[in-house]
């Protein structure tokens, strides 16, 4: 990948879809003028976010589900939910089978210190393995819309299970808000009302296809009941912009330790490196390039740090361990065809 041209201001490569460069080597996303209404839009989003929090605090046993992966962003988000927003939180971790031991220790320590109710949910390994293999080799992504600029097929499949399980939890316990650590490159709006109905509709459209690929139990992980209860999907990182340095300093106070032997774009999941590798093979660019380029443009991450994250590879034995767990050989990954 080293010979691929990279924007001189952010980190987007020439292989990114529909990109172009000016004579100074600046990409078309960086040179695009900031839309005049952008500031108004952001202010409106912040007001809406705060209103939804105020309106829904204290209505039920829990105010919000926290999708808590144990990574740095969701750890700080949980701290912010409890400390700054004063919410009564039920934290939820999907154990996808690839969360490192250090990450699990971080999770247990943080929820204890913050005095938050929490549980791990670990879907059956056979299902998760089948789903990840389909994400690597199959066409799950095509049936879920065109997300290739934002997320790897492997991560998308996992996030879909997280979103559905979080929504089921919120419906079961009547919890009106779900917080997730999405960053500006990953989700369009800070508050989305009744996103769970969109998941349900998506399952109505693609459920049969997924059943044929993933087995009949797929509904357990990707379908939701018809329920009129209203839930707000909340993405605080779209309205409270925090630099990575700030987040790391804040969570260090909770005893959070950075897990080792991971790629540069995750702080909890050993499968992420596999998703990145497959994405680069299939689409020709790194799945975190867009997200990191947005953080660079917003001044929340330096270009050097972003480049470091994109190029930091997990060591080969760790990568092979994850592949072995999936029953996929390195050779099969290397021969993935460019889409
Ligand atoms: Zn750029």
Secondary-structure map:
Elements: H1 28-31, H2 38-56, E1 64-67, H3 72-83, E2 89-94, H4 101-114, E3 117-121, H5 125-137, H6 153-173, E4 177-179, E5 191-193, H7 195-214, H8 218-222, E6 232-234, H9 244-252, H10 272-283, H11 289-297, H12 303-311, H13 316-326, H14 330-334
Parallel strand pairs: 1-2, 1-4, 2-3, 4-6
Antiparallel strand pairs: 5-6
Helix pairs in contact: 3-9, 5-6
The structure holds zinc ion.
Residues 7, 9-10, 12, 26-27, 29-30, 293 line the site of zinc ion (ZN).
Residue fraction in strands: 5-15%
> Based on CA inertia axes, which overall geometry fits?
globular
| Strand ordering within the main sheet | 3-2-1-4-6-5
Uncertain runs with pLDDT below 50, 5 residues or more?
Answer: none
- For the secondary structure, the number of strands is 6
Mean pLDDT over all positions? 93
Helix content: 40-55%
- What is the string of helix and strand elements? HHEHEHEHHEEHHEHHHHHH
Major β-sheet profile: 6 strands, mixed
Number of helices: 14
Amino- and carboxy-terminal Cα gap:
17 Å
The radius of gyration is 20 Å
Name every ligand kind in the structure. Answer: zinc ion
| Content-based structural category | alpha/beta
